[in-house]
Design brief:
By secondary structure, this protein is α/β, with parallel strands linked by helices. Helix content is 42%, strand content 7%. Helix 2 packs across helix 12, helix 4 crosses helix 5 and helix 8 packs parallel to helix 10.
Length: 351
């Protein structure tokens, strides 16, 4: 057996069999939108919140934390898979302080996007403001553990970025301004340029392990399928939106390649949920689901945030039977499947 193969096999055995063995990732640091927000929007004056029941009913203690899900979200599962905490806390949550953020912190804000105009739609945290919070976190971390230890933590941390859907569905296709300025292809270039700038700034701040999240098949979200139904288009996935997602993911793939070539010592991967989520939607029974076209929460048509009402008799009793929790967000079970997929197909390089 060749030595490199033997070494990788031994590493795998150690990580799998030895109790307490962990990979070389010091912390999980999260940026993005509602796909990964663990409660930062709770502290904002915005309608886009989920800190009430039935959100969180399958989370630890049945607690609604501000996660847009019935339970855990991808950063939680990823953190646990890397031997860290099973739930990554929100930076703005007053229940936590810097000692809670040493091995994981979440800066994401539901409703945000790469484009600052997207965050303006629902008055949430702009993407670049999340970076300012990270700088603030770095200062607090240095004061807490010392400069050398803080540098070690931030350089060995895994940075997760997940956003972009709102730029298209809540901004480009809903508001007129960006459509008057950009074709959809040029808008994708504009967004990928912002993504590249953000990662380069993270790099300058010491980040070396970065996961850039691709778009899901956004035309298959219950909200879009319902909208198409009322437009007389049958209620199937909006394949035009799906093509936009695929094209944008292709641009992000090119960005990842360029960044890895340009920035010494960095490792950027594209964590792309598109294929696995579309397969789940089209063949839900293969994954133990019964319903993919509508969501668990209320009627499963347009409900999200305050429209997801725990008192509504249409809210399902078992979210594990549903691919989607509300009209925009996957259920905890789906999040687990997608997280396992991206760990196996992208994040494994950091194990």
């Amino acid at each position: 057996m060749h030595k490199p193969i033997l070494f990788l096999l031994l590493v795998h055995i150690i990580l799998t069999l030895v109790p307490g063995a962990t990979a070389k990732v010091s912390a999980i640091i999260v940026f993005g939108d509602s796909s990964v927000d663990s409660g930062n929007n709770n502290q904002l004056s915005t309608l886009l919140k989920s800190n009430f029941q039935p959100y969180g009913r399958d989370f630890y203690g049945g607690k609604p934390t501000g996660r847009f899900c019935n339970g855990r979200i991808p950063p939680d599962f990823i953190s646990e898979a890397f031997g860290l905490k099973p739930a990554v806390p929100a930076y703005l949550d007053p229940m936590y302080n810097i000692s809670d953020f040493v091995d994981g912190v979440n800066f994401a804000s539901a409703g945000t996007g790469y484009d600052s105009a997207t965050s303006d739609v629902l008055s949430v945290i702009p993407f670049m403001r999340e970076l300012e919070y990270y700088k603030e976190y770095q200062s607090k971390l240095k004061a807490h553990v010392g400069d050398e230890k803080a540098k070690e933590i931030t350089s060995e941390a895994l940075y997760l970025l997940s956003l972009g859907t709102n730029d298209f569905l809540e901004n480009y296709y809903t508001m007129p301004d960006r459509r008057s300025q950009f074709t959809v292809d040029k808008y994708q270039d504009y967004l990928s340029g912002i993504a590249g700038k953000f990662i380069k700034e993270l790099y300058e701040l010491g980040a070396r392990k970065i996961s850039l999240g691709g778009l899901p098949p956004m035309g298959c979200l219950p909200l879009e399928r319902t909208a198409d139904f009322f437009r007389g288009q049958g209620g199937e996935c909006n394949e035009n939106y799906n093509r936009v997602a695929l094209n944008f993911n292709s641009k992000l793939s090119g960005l990842v390649k360029n960044l890895n070539q340009e920035l010494s010592g960095i490792k950027v991967v594209l964590s792309n949920p598109y294929n696995i989520l579309k397969q789940i939607v089209h063949k839900p029974s293969l994954y133990g689901f019964e319903v993919a076209g509508i969501a668990c929460c209320s009627s499963g048509l347009f409900e999200m945030s305050y429209m997801c009402d725990r008192l509504n008799p249409f809210t399902c009793t078992d979210a594990d039977k549903y691919v989607f929790w509300d009209s925009f967000h996957p259920s905890q079970k789906t999040n687990k499947i997608v997280s396992d997929y991206v760990i196996k197909n992208a994040l494994h390089v950091f194990l």
